[in-house]
Design goal:
heterodimer, A: mainly beta, Methylamine Dehydrogenase, Chain H, 4-stranded antiparallel beta sheet, 3 helices, B: about 240 residues, mainly alpha, about 0% strand, PP2A_PR55 (chain A), WD40_repeat_dom_sf (chain A), protein phosphatase regulator activity (chain A)
Amino acid sequence: MPAAEADKRARGIGALAQDTLWCFSQVKGTIEIGATEADIISTVEFNHTGELLATGDKGGRVVIFQREQESKNQVHRRGEYNVYSTFQSHEPEFDYLKSLEIEEKINKIRWLPQQNAAYFLLSTNDKTVKLWKVSERDKRPEGYNLKDEEGRLRDPATITTLRVPVLRPMDLMVEATPRRVFANAHTYHINSISVNSDYETYMSADDLRINLWNFEITNQSFNIVDIKPANMEELTEVITAAEFHPHHCNTFVYSSSKGTIRLCDMRASALCDRHTKFFEEPEDPSNRSFFSEIISSISDVKFSHSGRYIMTRDYLTVKVWDLNMENRPIETYQVHDYLRSKLCSLYENDCIFDKFECVWNGSDSVIMTGSYNNFFRMFDRNTKRDVTLEASRENSKPRAILKPRKVCVGGKRRKDEISVDSLDFSKKILHTAWHPSENIIAVAATNNLYIFQDKVN
Amino acid sequence: MMLSKGLKRKREEEEEEEPEKEALAVDTWWLDPRLPAVAQAPPAVPSNSLLDLSVLKLHHSLRQSEPDLRHLVLLVNTLRRIQASMEPEATLPSVPSPPEAPGVAADSLLASSDAALSASMASLLEDLSHIEGLSQAPQPLVDEGPPGRPSGGAPPGLGALDLLGPATGCLLDDELKGLFEDIDTSMYDSELWAPASEGLKPGPEDGPGKEEGLELDEAQLDYLLDVLVGTQALERPPGPGR
């Protein structure tokens, strides 16, 4: 479509971060302070239509929420998300050879585009990827010839007549079944999975290698990136995230602990150790410190929906890169620059190693990422305005408008501001998700899932 | 208990004795609530507490049954940076960094067997403690820094390191070192490095004064020259499973 048209539509869908009023919609999860560690949400993902919202937790469980149909009577209330299916995706395992326990924590969930009545998703822990089929059953066949009502086999000799089984309605049942298990392909910890636009393959990335899988084949995978040095003593860099291009099935990117991004083309060679493009911003000498490398480590990389840009998250910033410009990002947004002078204490308490994710809105006009104190930030790429919001129980009245928050960096603190030293670093928003086409966001705050929507006028 | 008390004293002394290190105050502001929070000026020389902290973290990370590789790599790279900046301008003829230099550190991360891991860990700690022992006065130092005993006598207050036995007392005695090489010290270490044990480093501030520091200087220089000339064995025998 002509550029002007695309622009108009983008402005309509995305709206402006500042002009958008975000309201509390729902919160899922326990309120008690003594919630177990197993309940900590470790990944959040909308499916391609936004009808379903999946979460994974440290206990290896997946919970899927489904948006209820909007009723014509309640126009002011958008469809709410209710539990659709809950299942145990991964169990803790023990690797007897290495005498190690393999955590059941779900690192990532990725949905497959819907091709029939069932829903399919990939979920992964540190070592094993599983393909789950989630399907509905609302009818039950009755009147088998060889089985009785309880399912016991009948003696064929007693059968004198034949009948055709009929389908009778039953209470809706949602079943999740593991259709494929992709195991034993990763020596190191899986940090990313990404479904290819061909819908036939996907990749899984660990600290040193990236493997390409065909959905139908579980007993082998192709290794497409291997950065393990011949001599492990020379290891200085690991892979931190990877993703396929949304449209070009031969292209993918992966990020590193040194703040670099490599774009690879699978047509170039079987093993994509040589990148096609290399994205790195030169270090700012005025900001140099002993922690420079740690804070430059990229924790997440995401293609824009258009496929023209990539967004990366490091400890203090979010950057947008144009695929056609490798030497620096086109946009840099400060998430919480007031932490720059606190790096030493954040190093001491290990917070400096926290891995924050970042997301695009449906029209690629606004980006969002999390911070501490249950704060999360949105940046409007067009207006260059940003906002800080908080996911907390205090702001949890239905349709209550979220008030922008501000962190006071020095000097006098205004009434509504919070000082840097009062921030709660145990309350971190690492995982967020944005509905593919509407202004609905899901924010994971430890063991609670908040859903916010923009105000419907 | 004793170790952490020692550390506290050392820190206060550090602040008293070295008031000119304004930059370091920034690093340690979070340790002393009395200090006002100042804007960060990146310190040219890292504080010893930063080095301690990093070594402690590395040790803790290595103790995990399956260390987080990213965490480990970032820690080691940071530690290398700290070590590198603690070395002054070399007055010696340029010493090519021995290939084992990163290996000593990386080895300890990435060795797969427990025995190799603990042997490497011990050697890494030896190296770092050696560097810390010299850090009080600027001294030329080979990157790997094969453990050498300061000829001025072991600085007092070695504390925990003494307990490791061969780590400090008889470093030059290959035979003795060899004896202890394949002993699994991981359990031993873990008791020592329990949360309270921050007294990882010897207390150079408690120890020799400036003059003695200079003596160490020359002794170390001699040793290093010997190493370069090849009269001293540089390599340690590799640990089992490496």
